[in-house]
Structure formats: C-alpha cells, structure tokens
Design a protein that fits this description.
It is built from 9 helices and 14 strands. A 6-stranded parallel sheet has the order 3-2-1-4-5-6, with helices on both faces. It is globular, with a radius of gyration of 19 Å. 49% of the residues are buried. The structure holds adenosine-5-diphosphoribose. The site of adenosine-5-diphosphoribose has 28 residues, from helix 1 and helix 3.
Length: 309
C-alpha cells in the first residue's frame, strides 16, 4: 500500500498554498507542476523542508515534467492568469481556456483515472473545458467555487452575529460569478435559518458582500487575487475525496436536467467521495431562487458558447 498522490497544476499563489495545505495535512504525496522553470522546484523544496515541523511524512516534488505526475489520484488545476484589478473573471476567458485545455490534455495522458478539481477562472467555463477535453465521466470532473463562496458567506454571518464559524452553515448555488445565488433560507446558525436571526437588510448586505467577495480581495491586493481561502476550500474537497467522506459540499457539477439545467456546469450541492461526485443533491427552490439560478446559468452558457465547449 502506498500513499495517495495529488498533482497540483500551477505553482502560483493558489496552487502552492493548496499544495502546502495538502502536504501539511499528510493527505497525500504531492507533485506541483508549472511552466515556469525553477518556481515549482524552489517552492516545492521549501514546502518539503517545513514537513518535519508539521510532522508530515509525504513526498513533495516540484517539476516542469508531466511524467512526474503519472497515476495521480486527484489533480487540482490552478494554472492560468489571475484576475487583475478592474478585470472581470470573464476577461480571463480566452487565455485561461487555452491554458486549461493544454493542461487537461497532459493530465489525461499521464493520469487517466484521476479525479479533476478545476480552480482556474472563469470557473464554470474552465471546468466545462476540462470535462469536454478530458472525456472523463462527469463524476470525475468538478469545479471548486461553492465551498469558497459559502465559506465567505459563513465568515460574514459569524462576524455579524458574533458566533463561532463552526455554528454557521451557508448555502450558495450557481456559477462562480457576480450572478451566484446565495440562499439565506438554507443558511443556518446552529440549525436556525438565517431569516429567523437577521433582518432582510442585513441578509441582503451579507449576500452582496459574498457575491463580491473575490473582487473585495482583488481591490486590496492590486496585483493578484485571493488564495488563502481558495486553497482551504481545495483542501476540504481533496480531503472529502481521498477519505471517502461522502461529504455534501457545493461544487461545480455537470448538470443533465437537475435544477432544470442541461449540459452545463453549475454550482450545486453534491456528495463527494472516493468516486468523485457521487450524487447531485436537489433542493426545492422558490420561483425567485429558480429564476436567479437560471440567470446564473445563462451567464455561464454565454461563456461556454464563446469558447465552444
Ligand atoms: N501550465 C502550468 N502552469 C501554468 C500554465 C500552464 N500552461 N500557465 C500558467 N501557469 C502557471 C503560472 O506560471 C503561475 O505560476 O499558473 C500559475 C498561476 O499562479 P498565479 O498567477 O499566482 O495565480 P493564482 O492566484 O494562483 O490563481 C490561479 O486560480 O483562483 C483562480 O482566478 C484564479 O485563474 C486563477 C487561478
């Protein structure tokens, strides 16, 4: 028996931080790959040298060669360019499409049985790209967005009420863009639905801040986008898969009729286990919520059509 193997494509902020979290948690051996020469090797060695202190016995390889990624169990794709101030996720579309397409072709060649977690933005269009290019079954290709968006919403709810983040569950559906659909009705604090705890005005403010959560960070950083919370979200998904936890998490999943959406990736609650997406969980929506989800789907559909995937 050996350890699991996780490849992280992209040794930038999101990729390296996710790789470090996975190694520190002793979840798997990690291969971090990038096109830049020296960066994955240098950051990889640096992370490895921290492992004695975090008491983690894993192998960590930084490389530019896909041969090292051979037979990975999970591949996290963070390659791409990050959003700059004033740049929408959609501006990234064409550049990141070419990058994600090329990366996916390499990943499929070397790890044909892997589970893909796509992180590159614009998220829903990039995960659809990886799905179409890989020709993997839909269960094995998913996008990371909902875990991050709901973690942001949980943070804001906990801050507002002065309660433990542990007590707070938040529910966010839809695409990972300004049209995402936070659902206060399904968001709870110690089991109590949000509308029983806060006024509509406060909820609306939290929902708006959640929608713009990525942009708020970009506004501060100026040269780059968020990576601490995104990498924590990646860790939670990788952990659920490798430990076969059957955890219900919001992820971008390929819908074939669920929620009235067909042939498109959208953020919905799924059961994550060792086979990947083991179930799509359907919840009942009000007419307004359904309309918001349709609007979000239409925005993703537009991107997907632009790149023809
Ligand atoms: N193959 C491998 N790595 C690549 C490729 C490629 N074809 N093209 C670019 N990269 C690498 C870059 O060299 C860089 O090291 O991807 C890395 C991206 O890192 P950052 O620029 O630091 O971006 P980051 O903040 O990590 O965001 C990565 O995740 O959240 C999303 O919007 C974000 O799409 C962006 C992605």
């Amino acid at each position: 028996m050996g350890r699991f193997k996780v490849t992280v494509v992209g040794a930038g902020n999101v990729g390296a931080t996710a790789a470090q979290r996975i190694a520190d948690a002793e979840l798997a051996d990690v291969v971090m790959i990038d096109i830049l020469e020296g960066i994955p090797q240098g950051k990889g060695l640096d992370i490895l040298e921290g492992c004695p202190i975090s008491r983690s016995d894993v192998r960590f390889i930084g490389t530019n060669d896909y041969k090292e990624t051979k037979d990975s169990d999970v591949v996290v794709i963070t390659a791409g360019i990050a959003r700059k101030p004033g740049m929408s996720r959609d501006d990234l579309l064409k550049t990141n499409y070419d990058i994600v397409k090329g990366v996916t072709e390499q990943v499929v060649k070397h790890s044909p049985k892997s589970i893909l977690i796509v992180v590159s933005n614009p998220l829903d269009a990039m995960v659809q790209t990886a799905f179409k290019v890989s020709r993997f079954p839909k269960e094995r290709v998913m996008g990371m967005a909902g875990v991050l968006d709901s973690a942001r919403m949980r943070t804001f709810i906990a801050m507002e009420l002065g309660v433990s983040v542990d007590n707070v569950h938040a529910f966010v559906l839809g695409g990972h863009g300004d049209d995402m659909v936070p659902l206060p009705r399904y968001s709870t604090v110690a089991g109590i639905p949000l509308p029983d705890l806060m006024s509509k005005e406060v909820i609306d403010r939290i929902v708006e801040r959640t929608r713009k959560g990525g942009g708020e960070i970009v506004g501060y950083l100026k040269t780059g986008s968020a990576y601490y919370a995104p990498s924590a979200a990646i860790l939670e998904m990788v952990d659920a898969i490798l430990k076969d936890k059957k955890k219900i998490l919001p992820c971008a999943a390929y819908l074939e009729g669920e929620y009235g959406i067909n042939g498109l990736y959208m953020g919905v609650p799924v059961k994550l286990g060792s086979s990947g997406i083991e179930q799509i969980v359907e919840i009942s929506l009000t007419n307004d919520e359904r309309a918001a989800l349709q609007k979000s789907a239409a925005a993703v559909q537009e991107l997907v059509e632009k790149i023809g995937v």
